[in-house]
Amino acid sequence: MSGHVPAPLIASSRTPDPPDAEPGAGQPAGGTATARPTCRENRMPLITWGPELEIGVDIIDRQHQGWVNLLNELDVALVEGRGLEQVGKTLNELIDYTHAHFRTEEGLMAKADYEDLPMHRREHRVFTDQIEIFRDRVELGQMALSLEVMQFMRGWLVTHITGSDRGYISAFEAAGQG
């Protein structure tokens, strides 16, 4: 096998859970994946949902888990070399899901009078701008969705949840939203 990944664009036939729904079953428990085997049969998910990604706000945790599931589907499709049409569909689902999640999260932050909401909102905007650029470049044939792009999205999500999102927990608890 040459190690060449076919034109990388993907998607799954499963529609991700909407941000306000319970995430799909079957997501493995445990820590976030730090190493990924190269054999497809032995591959670990791009991100493994586990307690270290929970922030203790039910709706946000459900949405984060749905986001993890969608990113894992995109990753599997990439590794399997699915077609551009599927990738575009999945990227659009990811972008729509991201916007819906950020609206929910920012709405809860506003209700809790979270003092760092403007900075958090900026972080969200930078990320959504970047994934929309990825999508546009993929659709224009200027780039292929790569493992590096998937690692960027994984890194951003895990870092954001375990860093920035933890910053609003005390404000949510004080407002009775925790």
Notable traits:
mainly alpha; 178 residues; 55% helix; Four Helix Bundle (Hemerythrin (Met), subunit A); globular
- Helix and strand element order: HHHHH
Gross morphology: globular
Query: Could you please say which CATH topology applies here?
Result: Four Helix Bundle (Hemerythrin (Met), subunit A)
Number of strands: 0
Whole-number tally of structural domains: 1
Q: Give the count of helical stretches.
A: 5
**Relative strand content:** under 5%
CATH class: Mainly Alpha
Average pLDDT, all residues: 79
* Weakly predicted, low-confidence segments: 1-19, 21-40
Distance between the first and last residues' Cα: 50 Å
- Main β sheet profile: none
**CATH-level-2 architecture:** Up-down Bundle
Describe the 3D structure.
This protein is mostly helical and 178 residues long. The chain has a single domain, classed as Up-down Bundle (Four Helix Bundle (Hemerythrin (Met), subunit A)). The chain has helices at residues 58-80, 84-111, 117-139, 147-164, 169-174. It is globular and about 45 Å long. The model is unreliable at 1-19 and 21-40 (pLDDT under 50).
